[in-house]
Amino acid sequence: MDRLIIRGGRRLAGTVDIAGAKNAALPLIAASLLSDRPVTLANLPAITDVETMQVLAGGYGVRVTRGQAHQVTLDAAAAVNAEAHYDTVRRARATALVLGPLLGRFGHARVSLPGGCAIGARPIDLHLKALTALGAEVAVDGGYVTARAPHGGLAGGRIVLTLPSVGATETALMAAVTARGETEILNAAREPEVADLAACLVAMGAHIEGAGTQRILVQGPASFRPATHTLIPDRIEAGTYAVAAAITGGRLELIGARLEHLAVQCQILERAGVSVYPTDRGLMVERAGHLRATDVSTEPYPGFPTDLQAQFMALMSVAEGAAMIRETIFENRFMHVPELARLGADLTLRGTSVLVRGVERLRGAPVMATDLRASVCLILAGLVAEGETVVNRVYHLDRGYEDLARKLVRCGADIERVPG
Asked: Domains along the chain?
């Protein structure tokens, strides 16, 4: 397994191109199964999660044609209602997203339950309740979900989500565009990635109102047509590089980043002593003074995202004072704490919170990545640690960041990727 060797102490400066959003790409690939007309996706990130999702789609007969850089055309005209092999499913945790499209198009579907994740359980019960609200019969048996639409297909209905789950909202949307009549989705997730999926579905021929709010209305069934859609930039990648600028006392322009997708994160960074302002090409992030300890609690969008919690913890580990970081989304998303402590961070775990007392300096050490965001948290800490930090198991990093090491090196970091 590859590892990263980081020699810290360098201030970052320059520009970083923000890739397309990973969390938008996965449901968009699944959505291609809805239609027998081609869907072209532009600004698709070159990461392993996206590659795996394309392999999964190919298993259902979707023809994937690569065009220009970061562009693919997905043609599901010859799609079949197959059953994805678990070997593929275990590598693609977003496989539940194909359930709605398969059910809506073919009237029945059988999908293996997605693999677990180091950050905790990701139950799909809300996905299944959404499909049930549209008239489907759903059963879970032997590690598989089986869903069957009634005679005549899915029918519009009211879907009330007990939690604003992103995945369940996306499943509800993709199924609803195939259902007869009106579907109302209440307590819907408001994330930009949900609105991006809705925009693509509209381009494909769907009628959707309210995406990006807590109430979404869908008029079905859609009359599908060929479509082209450009993905939004990845707000989590942008937030990660914003922390990289802040932690090194640097100055980075994040090309393509959107302030409206990062409003809360930017407010919190500014409280911590970091300047963030829009430019003609994206966002500028810079820090000249001291970092101030700042409390944060993860929340559904538009709150502070759980996918930036680990990165922010690395930042607070070298801030002046003490900060409390509270995790409310996933029950086991503090696996980076002991590894960050190996670099000298002063961290006290208290249930769903971590008290971070800032230290004057971190010191390099060998550390082990446990998940995607933990990987980048340790890299960020390594950027300011004295000496050499070795981050092992960086294959996690490849799931969600396109050429992260190369992008950081271009901005002045001393990072080397070596075979394990």
From this structure: 3-19+233-418 (3.65.10.10), 22-230 (3.65.10.10)
